[in-house]
Design goal:
The complex is a heterodimer of chains A (404) and B (138). By secondary structure, chain A is an alpha/beta fold. Chain A contains 13 helices and 15 strands. Chain A has two domains: 6-11 and 263-390, Aspartate Aminotransferase, domain 1 (Alpha-Beta Complex), CATH 3.90.1150; 18-259, Type I PLP-dependent aspartate aminotransferase-like (Major domain) (Aspartate Aminotransferase, domain 2, 3-Layer(aba) Sandwich). The two termini of chain B are 26 Å apart. Chain B has helices at residues 5-12, 65-78, 83-87, 91-98, 105-125, 133-136, and strands spanning 27-34, 39-48, 53-62. The chains are: A alpha/beta (404), B alpha+beta (138). Chain A binds chain B through residues 307-312, 315-316, 326, 328-331, 333, 335, 345-347, 350, 382-388, 396, 401-404, and chain B through 1, 3, 11, 14, 17, 19, 31-42, 59-65, 67-68, 103, 105-106, 109-110, 113, 117, 137-138.
């Protein structure tokens, strides 16, 4: 029997894999020591568990275990990476390059730098959601200390040309950071081959627990340092103070191990389900995929259903947990800035749904989702004045709307 | 966001969805909102000219559940009212009836605008002076 509602919002967060919980359990109960306690077996057991997790994580992203700095999640990692580089490399320069489609944890951190006297370039993206390498090249200056571009986008799944971006940053003597939140654990990420110097990621997007993440900080070629953003006991090689969240870290480690072992099979199964969902929904007239379909995370699709408003649509698909590019929660009605950056008009951005599949998504759930969305879109279009006008051949862009 | 039962009821079983013949002299049409704002309402009334009473009302709305419910409720209220009674409908009555939260009050404002805009269209078509209020709301 199908259990409703069906969770298809896995870019927001994923459920905890039972195997991850099992690995964590002892560290929530009997093995409770502080990993920084050097004088007794309680501390040693905790430290051993943390070290093992570092190895599991390092194996997933091809780094050295010592290059992992544990944090509370991707937002903290993004903050630490950007602010930490800005502060550490202040003598070299004060210029940072990022893109308009980044997560708020990146964009708002960059805005903070601007208040501190930093200079930030926000690169635009094309209609596929990709930055232009020529734009990046042109934006590089001798003062550029950091280029930070996300690996895969949270709203559309679009994957940026990471290796090419890293090469340009390095050619100009800047460090390259990536927000790997949506990509790590979903697609192969190899910090050596990709040329990544700093990378933020988190456990809860890959079937791990919430409240724990990591920052990869390269130790060789070049040796990278970030200035700590919290003062305290000097944990994590002085870059992030605070008692380690041992159960969380064990969970992140286990999640990374499972991702490494199961990624290929998960990708094959998820992309087939995603493609089927997408193919079926595109049989609805005037529906469009947002972002690149070639360079994309395997479990994501973002579709606009023209002439239907996203929040109304979400109410119509009440048996699904999805998210919309429409944020109709205030009088200002701001649509998704990510979709707008791709060149979508406001009304098309308002009409979008994001589907994020997971390891636990079934074919039966996808079948249900397909029918449910088709029914809701059809019903809402029957009560949409815009759909009626479109069907009558009226050009909506020529109408003088009474804006409110 | 949690919707009230009344919003869910109107959304799931909208009253009076449809289109009236806008070329008829006794039909007034109001089209308010804008696609880029995420809300467009079209509300139509048919008036019995002898009694000045609204005999039929229809709507179509592009928008969130609260916007759909506000316009559905408006058509329910309009039927049987005189044009003057209809003009007196205040958006806060819609807010109260549907228990709209503060962030959705603009949906009720839009519904009130749609009513006034439809009445205005009817008036202008029938040689009466335009309402001032219909334009002054924004």
């Amino acid at each position: 029997m199908l259990k409703l509602p069906i969770y298809l919002d896995n870019n927001a967060t994923t459920p905890l894999d039972p195997r991850v919980l099992e690995a964590m359990m002892p560290y929530l109960t009997e093995v409770f020591g502080n990993a920084a306690s050097r004088n007794h077996p309680f501390g040693w057991a905790a430290e051993e568990a943390v070290d093992y997790a570092r190895e599991q994580i390092a194996a997933l992203i091809s780094c050295d275990p010592k290059e992992i700095i544990f944090t509370s999640g991707a937002t903290e990692s993004d903050n630490l990476g950007i602010k930490g580089v800005f502060e550490m490399y202040a003598q070299k320069g004060n210029h940072v390059i990022t893109a308009t489609t980044e997560h708020k944890a990146i964009l708002d951190t960059c805005k903070h730098l601007e208040k501190l006297g930093g200079r930030v370039t926000y690169l635009p993206v094309d209609d596929q959601g990709l930055i232009s390498l020529a734009d990046l090249e042109a934006a590089m200056t001798p003062e550029t200390v950091l280029v930070t571009i996300m690996y895969g986008n949270n709203e559309t799944g679009t994957i940026q040309p990471i290796r090419e971006i890293a090469a340009i940053a390095h050619k100009h003597g800047a460090l390259f950071m990536t927000d790997g939140t949506q990509a790590v654990g979903k697609i192969p990420v190899d910090v050596i081959a990709d040329g990544i110097d700093i990378m933020a990621f988190t456990a809860h997007k890959m079937y791990g627990p919430k409240g724990v993440g990591a920052l990869y900080v390269r130790r060789k070629n070049p040796r990278v340092k970030v200035t700590a953003q919290m003062d305290g006991g000097g944990h994590e090689r002085g870059m992030r103070s605070g008692t380690l969240n041992v159960p969380g870290i064990v969970g992140l480690g286990k999640a990374c191990e499972l991702a490494r072992l199961e990624m290929a099979a998960d990708t094959e199964r998820l992309s087939a389900m995603r493609d089927r969902l997408e193919r079926e929904l595109l049989t609805l007239e005037e529906s469009y995929v947002n972002g690149s379909r070639e360079r994309r995370l395997p479990h994501v699709t973002n579709i606009s259903f023209k002439y239907v408003e996203g929040e109304g649509l979400m109410m119509g698909v009440k048996d699904l947990a999805v998210s919309s590019g429409s944020a109709c929660t205030s009088a200002s009605l701001e649509p998704s800035y990510v979709l707008k950056a791709l060149g979508l008009s406001d009304d098309l951005a308002h009409s979008s749904l994001r589907f994020g599949l997971s390891r636990f998504t079934t074919d039966e759930q996808i079948d249900y989702a397909i029918n449910h969305v088709k029914e809701a879109v059809t019903k809402l279009r029957e009560m949409s004045p815009l759909w009626e006008m479109f069907k009558e051949g009226i050009d909506l862009s020529k109408i003088e709307w009474a804006e409110h | 966001m949690a919707y009230s039962d009344k919003v869910i009821d109107h959304y799931s079983n909208p009253r009076n969805v449809g289109t009236l013949d806008k070329s008829k002299k006794n039909v007034g049409t109001g089209l308010v909102g804008a696609p880029e704002c995420g809300d467009v309402m079209r509300l139509q009334i048919e008036v019995d000219e002898a009694t000045n009473t609204i005999t039929d009302a229809k709507f179509k709305t592009f928008g969130c559940g609260s916007a759909i419910a506000s316009s559905s409720l408006a058509t329910e209220w309009l039927k049987g009212k005189t044009v003057d009674e209809a003009l007196a409908i205040d958006n806060m009555e819609i807010v109260e009836e549907l228990a709209l939260p503060p962030v959705k009050i603009h949906c009720s404002v839009l519904a009130e605008d749609a009513i006034k805009s439809a009445i205005n269209d009817y008036r202008v078509k029938n040689g009466m002076p335009a309402l001032e209020e219909a334009k002054a709301h924004h």
